[in-house]
Amino acid sequence: HGAYMTDEKAFNVIHNADGLADLLQQAADQLKAKDIQIAEMKPKALFADAVSTSNSSILIGQLAKILRQNGVNIGQNRLFAWMRKNGYLGTRGSNRNIPTQRSMELGLFKTKETVINHSDGHTTVNITTKVTGKGQQYFINKFLNAPVMEA
Alpha helix (H) ranges present in the chain? Predict the structure, then answer.
């Protein structure tokens, strides 16, 4: 058998090359499908990073920091203002910055009461509003999926 290929061998080489081309095309198509899947999952992944704290309640200022780390340009004061404006927190008097009935029913916040004893003998109650894990997910999703937020 010198340097000449039989017709059968030549057929096999060409046939295998076609098979290889098909295989490469399939692999390319699968990679493309995976890329699309990854792109679709990206916001969810982003969000999962953002809510590594979801089992603990955090302060609204901490939520503002998480949002900022995820590209939402908002600080604590503007976040408070936005929450009041959109009916999540009370707007005036002793209810200012206290969660509304609606946001409590949604389970977005919890409050912590601290009794303060003043030097003249009278006591006051300080209420700290904290964002629950569910609330963190709720607000982060709301902000990350919104085009532009203004307080």
Answer: 7-50, 60-69, 76-85, 101-105, 133-144
